[in-house]
Amino acid sequence: MLVYKVATAVASWSSSSTKYDVFLNFRGDDTRDNFISHLYKELDQKGIKTFMDDKLKRGDKISSALLKTIEKSKISLIIFSKNYASSSWCLDELVHILQCKERSGDQVHVVPIFYGVEPSSVRTQSGSYEVGLAELEKRCKDKILVWRDAMKKAVEFSGWDSQNVR
């Protein structure tokens, strides 16, 4: 049901003037083989051009091509899941998405989807978010405050909670 609701809403925002209508920002280990694969299929069936980077390797840096893809996408779906906050890659993408939103205003839509996590856990960075960020802080002290701020901003956008969709 959530997949259908997301795809239907996104269809109303999509346009043919961008290379991709939608950029999917997600933690692959949590969602790739369940929610994301179903969402991608539903968006594709509706003719919505969706970017899903499924060729990333752990530890790789975000390429300039990937950053350009974010910039050229009209809609970014942020799929917050249990282990999202343990991925520096997801968090770096999130920061770039929000920077694009700041520059582009209403031309870019940012939509958070809370998949198996409470929005309050993301907002307050508690539970698995607290644990993930603590681990990242050991390796990436210089980015942690930016990531924390980005998550707090992202949860303020209107979105969906998988636990409350019927």
Automatic annotation (TrEMBL):
GO terms for biological process: signal transduction. It comes from the Eukaryota. The keyword NAD applies. Keywords: NAD. Residues 18-166 form the TIR domain. SMART domains: TIR. This is Putative disease resistance protein.
